[in-house]
Amino acid sequence: MDASTTSIMQKAYARWAPIYDVLYDKLTAPAAQAAVKAVTENATRILEAGVGTGLALEYYPANIELYGVDLSADMLKRASEKVERKGLNHVKSLQVMDVCKMDFPDACFDAISAQFIITLVPDFDAAMTEFDRVLRPGGSIVLVNHFGADKGLVAAYERAVAPIVKRIGWSSDFKVSKVENWAESNGKYDVEQPQPVFPAGFFKVLRLKKHS
């Protein structure tokens, strides 16, 4: 991600940070809980990419090691306060970091969770390639987001409203097929069937399993 894009996004998240929990906590909780359940299966050392204000941190079991990164220092400040206030000792570090270029060694995580961010990352391929780099063989990448319909009236509507929705930090026309195409070109992943969750299947949990 270039410096100008990073700066724009950091400023945007700084404005969102004070009200983010109020707006999204209840709405995203069921999806976040489903994502945590999926990502902690057979995993103890986990990366949450785009951890934000830490809405999902308390859903992780105490016996795992959780590392969180986010582009926004303002978001992470609120996440750190939450860790301290609630005694979330399983959270080992929270760092300002671009998910497209992380300071972690290769194959150092059992699983990666990316909740509500993958449709907003300016360079999807770079982010996924970086997730692949830091994930060990046999590990999982778990994405949770709204994924747009592939065809029909719903797909046409989502394409039409995409510019409007983007202004409030969402994406309406990002397709599961984009993830599937990346996995196919990468050649090291099996993509599971998306799991629809509240509200009414609007969000979906998508898990990619890396070959051992």
TrEMBL record:
Record EC number: 2.1.-.-
Keyword flag Transcription: no
InterPro entries: Methyltransf_11, SAM-dependent_MTases_sf, Thiol_S-MT
Residue ranges of coiled coil: none
GO biological process, one term: methylation
Enzyme class, UniProt record, top EC level: transferase
The protein's name: Class I SAM-dependent methyltransferase
Lineage: Bacteria, Pseudomonadati, Pseudomonadota, Alphaproteobacteria, Hyphomicrobiales
